[in-house]
Known about the structure:
Oligomer: single chain
Number of helices: 22
Structural class: alpha+beta
Radius of gyration: 28 Å
Distance between the termini: 53 Å
Strand content: 5-15%
Amino acid sequence: MGSPALGNRNNGQRLGVTEPISLGGPTEYDVTKTRELEKHLQDAGLYESNEEAVSREEVLGRLDQIVKTWVKAISQAKGLNEQLVQEANAKIFTFGSYRLGVHGPGADIDTLCVGPRHAARDEDFFGELQRMLSEMPEVTELLPVPDAHVPVLKFKFKGVSIDLLYAKLSLWVIPEDLDISQDSILQNADEQTVRSLNGRRVTDQILRLVPNIQNFRTTLRCMRFWAKRRGVYSNVSGFLGGINWALLVARICQLYPNALPNMLVSRFFRVYTQWRWPNPVMLCAIEEGSLGLQIWDPRRNPKDRHHLMPIITPAYPCMNSSYNVSSSTLRIMTDEFQRGNVICEAMGSNEADWDTLFEPYPFFEAYNNYLQIDIAAENADDLRNWKGWVESRIRQLTLKIERQTYNMLQCHPHPRDFQDNSRPFHCSYFMGLQRKQGVPVNEGEQFDIRLTVDEFKHSVNSYSSWKRGMEINVTHVRRRNLPTFVLPGGVRPFRPSLLAPWHSLRALDAKASSQAASKSPEVKGVPDGHVDGKKRKRLDGNVDAQSRNGKCIAAVLCTAEVHEGSTVGSCSTKSDHMDANNLAESRREKDDSNIKNGLTYFNDVEELLSHNVEVDRSIRCPPSSKEFSATKEAEKLAIEKIMSGPYGAHQASQEELEELEDDFEFKNQAKISEGITKCSHSESSTSNAAGALSSNGPVPSTGLQSNGGIEELEAAELTPPLLNPIPPAPMAQRKPLIRLNFTSLGKAAG
């Protein structure tokens, strides 16, 4: 399970496709804030105990023994000669968060089994190995997923969650010192094997391409924690998953190779707030390779132009790891980057702290309208399988709603499910809905998404492993009618609480406007969050459309900066005060020069290292406002230069996107055509068993029903035509219940 040693690569060589933005080292302020961050992550329980670490190592060792026994057994069963049976070998590799060293307590371990050419995936891995595991008392919750994009065996071994992939190489014998980082390992490999190998190959390449592994790990732990708290950590929901966040953080580490995690977190938000998607994020140049495997290149591959937020893997064949991102989820993440950037700048003036950055997103207070997706099954195993399938399809519902309403209806999927303890083998998913902000509202303008929901249900019910009792129901629910099991403590507040000042860009804009009006040269303390209700309502109404369209973002960022002349902390008054001033003046001159040249990295590396790689203890506070503004402007120019690569101008036209989506739908329909008969059977079955999902009696064949006391909306007047409609199955006439009025879809104002 070992691999070549991976140490600190900060040895003077350049890492990345461009020069760094800054080679500046940490100040004492950075050291102090980094210690605070590390303590915060420790207190949040993000590090596993020594006992759990030992237990994981034991499980991995046992799993390695199991696959070695397995491969010898199938080699003998296939009639191989005695020598090949004796030499038969399989090997376990780890990848993902465990391999990166950023996993937390209870996290699953991503593992890869590499086997010889005669060990087939379907017959042997999902056959004999699966049977062996199922007979072991240590193994529980065994779930094979052979039809996934990357086929996987999921199970728990002595309570440790394992995701096990399989890669079949073109070798008769797998050496114990196998190095899978070599491209030749992909020779004659099938697509599933290439995808499975890429997990480990990408992970190792990331560790090779960051200048300081420890700083990378701390920063990545921080960003993963932040993303989960803010509800943007989920690849399957259309946000970003673990590998995506790792690549984004690694790029920031390359651009600021000598920075500590405090500065890396701040620059993460600053860089990606200014990033113009779909310009790709890359850790290294994309190599063509010699094996003819397809790589990400929008200049050649029309489908690659469809990607909205390309984050490219660094191992051959280079792929876009974030193809699931939609326009709605990209908008949500962009807003969160902007919020993080404002908070990090406010931290420099003691207006905010790490707790402020990590405040959880108040999803169930943020919208007035939601879609509630209820699913149920007859037992725990069926529910686990059903959940996995439904989760993989929810993203398609988001895309269909965006597409069929011409992006006028924006969706915010919650990345996790919720369970009502009073209803066994049942869970719910939620999606916030709002009208596109900044677009004039025509009085009485309405639209109908019933057919979109029908298509989604039709697709979900075509599940090849569908069993009796697997049900799905979709309803529209207003905020005031949300079920109590999604609310904190299960208690509905007497009246909805106001969103905290840092929870949305609207609130940030209101806060910034208030600061500008006071014209105070110095801001002290953390805001208490109390705002008069009428004033907040007026402020929200004034800035809502602008903030969601990004028209006032520049004003937010500008007014949230440290005011010129403000004092933060206490600067040193030691005898080296003049030296500190001289150094600061020198840096200002360099900044001015860099701005003129459009560059922010320093030419004289030796001078920089002598001043900055070690902590400059004469600086006990952040830079002055003038220095801060100059540095920001220089960084902005550098970011613009970074984005001027060969891939930026290649973006699909609307006609191309529609053709690509139609092609995707056609292929998807071909895959599920076998399940149409089963779908009809399942929908009739759900009607008979609907009592498990509603107190309102049997569910109509489409599953569209009222949720308790939810009021119906007016009949739709605007129903955009489908670009590629799916003929609906015959259904009984029923009263339509999922209809949405544009005027009712504003974001919650508190």
